[in-house]
Amino acid sequence: MKANRLEDEYIWVQELQNRMARLEKEQQAESEAEKRRLKDLHWMHCPKCGQTLSPEQCGSVEIDVCPSCKGVWLDMGELGTIVETAGKGSFFHSCLKLIRGGKSRPI
Ligand SMILES: [Zn+2]
Fold this sequence. Notes:
It is built from 3 helices and 3 strands, in the order H-E-E-E-H-H. The chain has helices spanning 2-42, 78-85, 90-100, and strands at residues 54-58, 61-65, 72-73. Strand 2 (61-65) and strand 3 form a beta hairpin. It is elongated. Residues 46, 48-49, 51, 66, 68-69, 71 line the site of zinc ion (ZN).
């Protein structure tokens, strides 16, 4: 009788561990689905005004410019590239023309 009870407890613990593992997998899948949903919803949209960003080539970097508020979005590593090439002068000059659209105002 005692051995049976231990066996039952072992089976119960195994079942509980299996359920927990299954639940964890389901939560991970939901989390991934939520990440995909948010990415689809926000991809290439301005974080300030929600308009669709326009990719613009600026020297060796492709920046994403908001046509509405003129905000600029940089992908990972692009700021480093900009800073590295800043000394050469050509990158900022071409960016200023693009961002300001010919108007003279501070960055
Ligand atoms: Zn914007």
